[in-house]
Design goal:
alpha/beta; Rossmann fold; GMP Synthetase, Chain A, domain 3; nine-stranded mixed β-sheet; binds adenosine monophosphate; binds zinc ion
Length: about 425
């Protein structure tokens, strides 16, 4: 497999040197943090009087966590470490879980972010010959403009189409012979269900790759999209608090995502106790940004659950890899006392070949018990009038779910195109238990 680097020196730096670089940059970020009213208070309360108190990477653990609420409560400038006239860009988180938070960037922050995105893009094997169709929404969301600048830096031909308008997306893919997409997995599934309606077959498209991110999805969804479109799909992870996309990205080997450790320090903690977990154990992803001056965030609790694997990668990069995001600490469902993440349900249903491109999870109360209903769209060829076949399929999905998550779910089979569609981040779970 051909492996290309953007910053070969940094990407293959030996671990000792990488850690030395992290420590040096951690010093800078602590210095920067001391310029903000928020961290002055937070750090001095933790007994950290000056950046000199951080002498090793282990000392990072002396620094208290920062959480999303800290960003909200210090709105608008409590966490800003530069003057407003140095800020060249503002973004905001999508507010999937509440009030949006605001992110500031200096010109240098933008430059750094663009470079780590260029690095991520080159790691997937893209070159200046690729035509890139950016289906993420442009605007305050970091997914649109972030990848836009990164792909442009690599010299790719960028089509800044943004989200939505499926007919036009398909037409543009044909007109400009798009080779690479950036899209949420849920929207890419949906587009596939529309190809026939817009008289298009996969063979008329020129797609080779897709960067999939912004929402949790299962390995089976990746596989399904790779098969449906005959492409390689790369997992892309980031969050606006850490600039946006480009925190971690898969390389050509697609065996989980390299976390760019010269730009971010990754820790995995037990979300209940805050204790740092050993490598390989699943817990909450905590990130410290090392090269951002406008908004220096340290030990930021992402609420995303994943694990790290510290083995070298075949691509030669020394930066450790982060697993697929297994769920979020705040999206775990408790169904009659059983803990389950929506992504576990997705993993099961997407392994059933008859299942189409959309699904939804419903929770209601049946008396005092929780009732979990999974609505799945199935391919139209299944609706042959043979009720027995549909019943058998329903039971097959039900049994698979029972075997995997130990919950007796109610399965509803729906026709293609009947469930709600999302052009950005999908909202798969409808929980009506509180309302009854
Ligand atoms: P935002 O700050 O609005 O960009 O949202 C960031 C959040 O989106 C992350 O904290 C994750 O919960 C989710 N996210 C982004 N990329 C991925 C991915 N590749 N897999 C799973 N979840 C993701
Ligand atoms: Zn690799």
């Amino acid at each position: 497999m051909e492996v290309n680097y953007w910053n070969p020196d940094v990407e293959t730096l030996d671990r000792g040197q990488l850690e030395a670089l992290q420590l040096e940059r951690l010093g800078n970020i602590v210095t920067q943090a001391f310029k903000t009213p928020f961290y002055q208070k937070r750090l001095s309360r933790a007994g950290i009087k000056s950046p000199a108190n951080i002498q090793s990477l282990d000392d990072l653990r002396k620094i208290p966590f920062t959480v999303k609420d800290d960003l909200r409560q210090s709105f608008p400038k409590g966490l800003m470490a530069v003057e407003m006239d140095e800020v060249v860009r503002i973004h905001s988180s999508s507010g999937t879980t509440g009030i949006p938070t605001v992110i500031y960037y200096t010109a240098e922050d933008m430059e750094n972010w663009t470079n780590i995105l260029a690095r991520s893009i080159v790691a997937t094997g893209c070159t200046s010959k690729d035509v890139f169709q950016n289906m993420m929404s442009y605007g305050l969301f970091t997914g649109g403009l972030g990848l836009h600048y990164g792909t442009e830096r690599v010299g790719m031909t960028v089509i800044p189409i943004g989200g939505g308008n499926t007919r036009r997306q398909i037409q543009v893919m044909k007109d400009f012979k798009t080779t690479v997409l950036h899209v949420t997995p849920s929207y890419l599934l949906h587009i596939h269900s529309k190809l026939a309606e817009y008289d298009t077959t996969i063979d008329e498209l020129h797609l080779k790759k897709a960067f999939l991110g912004a929402e949790p999805y299962s390995e089976n969804t990746r596989k399904k999209l790779e098969e449906l479109y005959k492409i390689d799909a790369y997992n892309s992870y980031g969050l606006s608090e850490m600039n946006g996309p480009g925190v971690a990205f898969e390389c050509v080997y697609k065996e989980d995502m390299h976390v760019w450790e010269d730009a971010y320090i990754l820790e995995i903690i037990d979300p209940a106790t805050g204790e740092v977990l050993p490598d390989g154990e699943t817990g909450e992803v905590v990130l410290t940004n090392l090269i951002r001056s406008a908004l220096p965030l340290m030990r930021y609790r992402t609420r995303d659950l994943a694990f790290v694997h510290p083995e070298p990668c075949k691509c030669g990069r020394t930066h450790w890899r982060l697993s697929r995001i297994q769920g979020r600490t705040d999206d775990m469902l408790i169904v009659n006392g059983v803990n389950v993440f929506p992504s576990q349900i997705e993993e099961v249903i997407m392994s059933v070949p008859e299942v189409g491109t959309n699904y939804q999870i419903h929770l209601t109360k049946a008396g005092s018990l929780d009732k979990l209903t999974v609505r799945v769209e199935i391919y139209s060829k299944m609706f042959t009038g043979e009720l027995g076949e549909l019943e058998a399929l329903r039971n097959r999905i039900k049994d698979k779910l029972k075997a995997s998550i130990t919950i007796n779910a109610h399965i509803e089979l729906h026709e293609p195109g009947s469930l709600p569609v999302f052009e950005g981040k999908a909202k798969r779970v409808v929980d009506n238990r509180e309302m009854l």
